[in-house]
Structures are given as structure tokens and as C-alpha cells.
Amino acid sequence: MGTRISGIDIPKNKRGIIGLTCLYGINKSLAKKILKKVGIDENIKVINWSDEDISNIRKYISKNIKIEGELKSEIQLNIKNLMDIGCYRGTRHRKHLPLRGQKTKNNCRTRKGKKKTVANKKKVTK
């Protein structure tokens, strides 16, 4: 079993800076800052961390950084707030359309979902 931080297993055969990025909300630069604050070399593998190092990392993260569930719930709350106030971004969220200015005529399938074919009207013949 690997090291567990806030309910997530960190792979033990990776370097510390890469291992921490398995947590939702931590990228490489933030992982670098965390390890620097705690005083651990970023190139040391997770398997070589001492119990003290792991507890220091846990304490620092829980005290200073929002990760995993707390961060996800905050993001959802922000999106709900946008939808409630009825701003442009909120209405785009509600309609499941892209919100950052992308064209929607022939792209944005990720946001809109699977293609829905619409049948065209038949022409009346005389």
C-alpha cells in the first residue's frame, strides 16, 4: 500500500513532486512549493519519505490548501452561483454550451454531448 494523503493513495515509486500531483487541486508548481515549505527534496521518491515527512505534508496541506472534495464542492458552489445570478457564463452552463467564446457551429462536441441528428422538412411537390 502506498502513502495516503486525504484519502488518496500516492504512488510510491514516483518522485515526490509527481506523486503529490495525484491529488485533485495540486499541480507541479504547487507540489514544489509544498515540498520546499516542509523541507523535503523534490527528487526523493515517495517510498523513501519518513513517517515524519508524510505527517508534515498532511498537516501543511490540511492547514493551507483546499484539495479533493472541499475544492470540488467549492467549484460547484461557484458554478451554481453563476447560474443563480443569471449572468452570461451561468446561462451557458445551464444550456451545456461552451462558456469561453468558442464557436459552436461545428465543434464543441465535448460540452454538447453526442450528436443529435435533426430531420429536415420535406419539400412540397406540385
From TrEMBL:
Keywords attached to this entry: Ribonucleoprotein, Ribosomal protein, RNA-binding, rRNA-binding
Record carries keyword Ribosomal protein: yes
Entry's Gene Ontology BP terms: translation
GO MF assignments: rRNA binding; structural constituent of ribosome
Gene3D superfamilies reported for this sequence: 1.10.8.50, 30s ribosomal protein s13, domain 2 (4.10.910.10)
Region (Disordered): 95-126
Pfam families hit by this protein: Ribosomal_S13
GO cellular component labels: cytosol; small ribosomal subunit
Family stated for the protein in its record: Belongs to the universal ribosomal protein uS13 family.
Annotated PANTHER family: 30S RIBOSOMAL PROTEIN S13/40S RIBOSOMAL PROTEIN S18 (PTHR10871), SMALL RIBOSOMAL SUBUNIT PROTEIN US13M (PTHR10871:SF1)
Protein name (database record): Small ribosomal subunit protein uS13
